[in-house]
Amino acid sequence: MVATKKKWTLEEEVALKSGVLRYGKGK
């Protein structure tokens, strides 16, 4: 599981992008 930690899962990537779009640009 440590090896897969380097690459995010689709859910994590989407969640991160959503967070950046919502909070990143919001600030």
UniProtKB/TrEMBL annotation:
Keyword set, alphabetical order: Nucleus
Where does the record say this protein resides? Nucleus
HTH myb-type domain mapped to chain residues: 1-27
Q: What's the chief localization of this chain? A: nucleus
One GO cellular-component annotation of the UniProt record comes to:
nucleus
Name of this chain's protein: HTH myb-type domain-containing protein
Species per Swiss-Prot/TrEMBL record: Solanum bulbocastanum
